[in-house]
TrEMBL record:
It comes from Candidatus Propionivibrio aalborgensis. InterPro entries: cNMP-bd_dom, cNMP-bd_dom_sf, GlpE_sulfurtransferase, Rhodanese-like_dom, Rhodanese-like_dom_sf, RmlC-like_jellyroll. The lineage of its organism: Bacteria, Pseudomonadati, Pseudomonadota, Betaproteobacteria, Rhodocyclales. It comes from the Bacteria. CDD domains: CAP_ED (cd00038), RHOD (cd00158). It holds the Pfam family Rhodanese. Residues 158-260 form the Cyclic nucleotide-binding domain. This is Putative transcriptional regulator, Crp/Fnr family. PANTHER family: FAD-DEPENDENT OXIDOREDUCTASE, PYRIDINE NUCLEOTIDE-DISULPHIDE OXIDOREDUCTASE.
């Protein structure tokens, strides 16, 4: 059998395994449980190189059991035994780069994505330093929050692009509120005042169409809402009601602008935007289809602002998008929505109105 077809048995990681590994063991119990559910162990047969097909780049790899011979770039070698003190640390992280490896016996490994681990450790360490009593009687230990700050949200949800420098202030300024089933959190037409993240519970988003409330979406723990009116400083364009009782985290408009909108929202001049498009970025027209048909930029893709959330997952995450509209208001909201969900997105400063056709040449 060749090393290009390694026999592997994947199994879910037990919590007690993570509690032995460095520096993972320093995480809170809630985070360890989350991480355990997202990791798997793999078994590799004797005589094989476990890293021939999938290396250790971008990962923290630990030897759980068995004996593994490691050879480094200077051709020195070392036999690591699973369960020993040295096996509690990721392979090749604090030594010379690995040249190759060979399983002396059947071995068991665990791989943890470095990016995921860095995100979770950043939030966990910062939240550990926050005094819950500082935010009033309704406050809690942020490390125990399994909804709004669950790992999936931190990796690709509403908080995934937040600069780490802002996290500490964010914890201080969020207000935690309990809400009852049926409560209207936002009403269509009202002014924007707060940004919300669902800690637990479910919400329904509706909009009036011809005098009838039409359901648009159902939101769950970890989802965010209320940002559009705060980005464009306009009126609420939908109503959000609680389908169940639950707990919400809310952030005042001024805090949202300082800690979320400004760090995430990138604006480009016409000249810089055009250069980015020449380099491979895509124009994203977020106006109504009728506006797009009448006056669009060459090569632009039309995704109206009202459909941006539905386009999450459909747009290419490997491309950069430069959103534009008539004035810059709708495009700034679209760029923010995409940015906070992990896309590389900017908006054209001032929109088409501030960049007449003659100036675009």
């Amino acid at each position: 059998m060749t090393n290009d077809a390694l026999p592997m048995n994947l199994q879910t990681v037990r919590l007690d395994i993570l509690q032995r590994l460095e520096p993972i063991r320093s995480l809170s119990d809630v985070r360890l449980c989350e991480l355990a559910a997202l990791c798997t162990t793999e078994t590799v047969g004797r005589g094989l190189d476990p890293f021939r097909v999938q290396g250790v780049q971008g990962q923290s790899v630990y030897l759980l059991s068995g004996e593994l011979k490691l050879t480094y770039v200077d051709r020195s070698s070392f036999v690591l035994v699973g369960g020993s003190e040295g096996s509690h640390w990721p392979l090749g992280k604090h030594t010379q780069p690995l040249r190759d490896a060979k399983a002396i016996t059947d071995i068991e490994l665990i791989r943890v994505d470095d990016e995921m681990l860095d995100v979770i450790m950043t939030w966990d360490q910062l939240s550990a330093g926050v005094d819950p009593s500082a935010n009033g009687p309704a406050a809690t230990d942020w490390r125990l929050m399994s909804g709004a700050f669950r790992l999936q949200s931190l990796m690709d949800g509403s908080l995934s692009r937040l600069p780490s420098a802002s996290i500490d202030e964010l914890f201080k300024r969020f207000e935690r509120i309990k809400v009852k089933k049926g409560a209207a959190i936002l009403r269509e037409g009202d002014a924007g005042d707060f940004y919300y993240i669902i800690e637990n519970g479910r919400c329904e988003v509706t909009r009036k169409v011809g005098g009838v409330d039409m359901p648009l979406a159902e939101l769950k723990a970890g989802d965010a809402f209320g940002e559009e009116a705060l980005v464009v400083e306009g009126k609420r364009n939908a109503t959000v009601c609680m389908q169940t009782s639950g707990v919400l985290l809310r952030l005042k408009k001024s805090d949202f602008i300082e800690l979320l909108r400004e760090p995430l929202l990138k604006r480009l001049s016409w000249r810089d935007a055009a250069q980015q498009v020449t380099a491979g970025a895509v124009w994203l027209d977020v106006r109504y289809p009728s506006e797009y048909r009448n006056d669009r930029l060459p090569g632009a893709v039309n995704v109206p602002l009202s459909e941006i959330r539905n386009a999450i997952g459909l747009l290419d995450r490997d491309r950069e998008y430069i959103a534009y509209c008539q004035s810059g208001r709708r495009s700034s909201a679209a760029a923010f929505l995409l940015s906070q969900r992990g896309y590389r997105a900017c908006c054209l400063e001032g929109g088409l109105k501030a960049n007449p056709v003659a100036d675009r040449c």
